[in-house]
Amino acid sequence: MPNRTAAQVNNHDNAQAQVSFPVNIEAAFRAQATRTVAFLVKHRARAYAKHPMMLETISPGLAAAAPETVIAMAKQLMETESQAPRRWFGFGGEVPILNAKAVLLFARARRRTARTRALPVAGSL
What is the dihedral of CA 63, 56, 101, 94, to 10 degrees? Predict the structure, then answer.
């Protein structure tokens, strides 16, 4: 480093991080939380797609149900979880609602796949 002694380069006691633009920490945390929830929901939905019997842990009979039934059940689970009381520090209610959202995402994908398979291919008639 030109014009700086070794002692100045290695002196981190008075170093401060300077940010040249306004930072909204709350918005940054919210954005990261949103990305994390999206990742967790997609990851769980993919796990349900690979192993549909995991749906039995959510509700018995869900793995064999039609996509419309699974969607209705997921919506009902989300409603039930949103009405449940929460602790003041925010822990304890995240997993059931994430599972319900993942079930909903999985069921919608399954319904979409069933619809596209049911449509006749052009030129096949």
Answer: -170
CA 74, 75, 81, 82 dihedral sign is positive
| Residue 98 resides in a domain | yes
Query: What domain range includes position 38?
Result: 23-118
Q: Tokens at residue 92, please?
A: 């304890």
- pLDDT at position 109, please? 94
Report whether pLDDT(116) > 90.
no
pTM for this predicted structure: 0.69
Residue 74: inside a domain: yes
Q: Tokens representing 56?
A: 């039995």
Stronger pLDDT, 83 or 125, i.e. the higher one: 83
Share of the chain above pLDDT 90, in %: 48
User: Residue 99 falls within a domain, yes or no?
Assistant: yes
**What are the residues whose beta carbons fall under 8 Å from the beta carbon of 102, sequence distance 6 or more?**
40, 41, 42, 43, 44, 45, 47, 48
